[in-house]
Amino acid sequence: DQQVKQNSPSLSVQEGRISILNCDYTNSMFDYFLWYKKYPAEGPTFLISISSIKDKNEDGRFTVFLNKSAKHLSLHIVPSQPGDSAVYFCAVGDSGGGADGLTFGKGTHLIIQP
Amino acid sequence: NAGVTQTPKFRILKIGQSMTLQCTQDMNHNYMYWYRQDPGMGLKLIYYSVGAGITDKGEVPNGYNVSRSTTEDFPLRLELAAPSQTSVYFCASSTGGFGNTIYFGEGSWLTVV
Prior knowledge:
Chain A is an all-beta fold. Helices cover about 0% and strands about 55% of the residues of chain A. Chain A is globular and about 45 Å long.
């Protein structure tokens, strides 16, 4: 049973427009949330995070929104650029739980079209 | 700034063979992890370690073994390789604690035939 769901396996967006990637989680004990970006033949790289005490975190073109009541987070990229084409993984953690790292979604393949 | 380094990058194994994936990190992180990623799937935790001499099973440990004799190194051993172990393997490390950001190596592509 998936604890973290990214329901869109792929998303195509025109260059310059906004990309919105979504993630849902099931366990209300999760209290920090991250997005990772992965290019082919490379390891995932950390992009942006948010803790449960906030509902928004911005870093340049990237903004993560957290809706705790809906157990939903989203990543907004604006404006989208060709280099943003990659697979994006949502990851969640529970600071009160064990040391067993993060739980990842299956990823969304973002394709930025010129 | 090497970060997390994995070797080999690519390997083909025959069914029943054994091998070790090497992982080393130079960030003095206490926490280390091995994940695997199957096509179209997220990363699944195989084993993790919170410090030298301490290891524990993750979600999918069967068919694997690990050791952690130093802070820097966390090798993953595959015994009696099976086709189901064909996957991409990622080693990772972190400082642990709240807001844990995990840093990944570049991956090791393993095919069992």
